[in-house]
Amino acid sequence: MELDVEVEMAAIVGLPSEQFKRIPITEAEDHIFGIVLLNDWSTRDVQRGEDFPFAAFNAKNFASTISPWVVTLDALAPFRVTPHAREEEDMLPYLTDPKDSTYDIAISMDWKLAGTDETFATSRSNLKNAYWTFKQMLTFHAFAGCPMRTGDLLGTGTISGDDPSSWCSLVELTRHNTQQIKTPGGHVRTFLEDGDEVIFKAWAGGEAETGRVGFGECAGLILPAQS
Question: Which are the contacts of 60, defined by CB distance < 8 A and separation ≥ 6?
Answer without folding.
Answer: 40, 41, 42, 43, 47
